[in-house]
Structure formats: structure tokens, C-alpha cells
Amino acid sequence: MPKFAPGDCLAVQLESGQYGAGLVLATDRSHPEYPSDLVADLDYLSDDPPTMDVFTTRNWLRLAYNVWQGLSIQWYGSYGFRKTKPRLTVVGNIPILATDPQQSSTHSDWRSIGRNILIQRERDAARDA
């Protein structure tokens, strides 16, 4: 079974101690032995967990570093979930809109969730310095 439901709003405690935010856009149960969740990172980084307003505004994280360009959306299977689970909190659930992204060709393990938020912020700060 996938770990979450579409529309789940995830507060992600990052390695820095700060919080990021991710929205579960879809789940894939087509391969019961490899269920997965499609999660989009939101452009949110704070010392405080995200509120529901962060999720309803849907300010998607746009990557612009190295070869990565576009929205930060990954499929997450079960690998790394057990270690990552204590850093994830479901803040609430919102309806998925027809205009929300629905696909990604990128797969990752749960230990890397939210990492793109930190990397993009570091790149933005270096560019603006």
C-alpha cells in the first residue's frame, strides 16, 4: 500500500531542523509489491511547520540548478520510509485539482524528501550574493 493518500499535506522536517512542505498528488497501486506516492515539493522553508494555507496556495518548488529544471516532483516507493517516517507529519488533506501536476519520471527514496528545497534555496542565495 502507498504510505499516504492523494491530497495529504506533508510537513517535512529537514536535516537542517527547518520544515519543508510536500503535497501528495497521486498514488500508484498498479504493482502491489512496489506501491508509490507522487509528492510535489512546495516552495516553503521555515523554522515552523507549514499551515494549511501553504498547501492551498500551491506555490510549487521550481528547480533551477545543474541539469534540473522544472517542478520538484518525485515518486516515492517504500525504500527509506521507516527511517524517514518520524520526520513526516500529515497536516491535513486537500482536494487534488485538475490543474495540479499528475506525473513525474523521477523516482527517489524517502530519505531524500525535501532535499531539493534546501538545495534550491542554497543556489538562490549564492546567485543573489
Strands in their spatial order, largest beta sheet: 7-1-2-3-6-8
Give the tally of structural domains.
1
Radius of gyration: 14 Å
Mean pLDDT: 90
| Helix percentage range | 10-25%
Strand content: 35-45%
Number of strands: 8
Number of helices: 3
Query: What's the main sheet like?
Result: 6 strands, mixed
Low-confidence stretches: none
Structural class: alpha+beta
Order of helices and strands: EEEHEEEHEEH
- Choose one word for the global shape: globular
First-to-last CA distance:
45 Å
Task: Write a brief caption for the model.
The protein is an alpha+beta fold and 129 residues long.
What does this structure look like?
The chain is of the alpha+beta class and 129 residues long. The chain has one domain. It is 19% helix and 36% strand. The protein is built from three helices and eight strands; from the N terminus they run βββαβββαββα. It has helices at residues 52-57, 81-84, 115-128, and strands spanning 8-13, 19-28, 36-46, 62-65, 68-71, 73-76, 88-93, 107-108. The strands form two sheets. It has a six-stranded mixed beta sheet. Strand 1 and strand 2 (19-28) form a beta hairpin. The longest helix has 14 residues, at 115-128. The radius of gyration is 14 Å and the shape is globular. It starts with 7 loop residues before the first strand and ends with a helix.
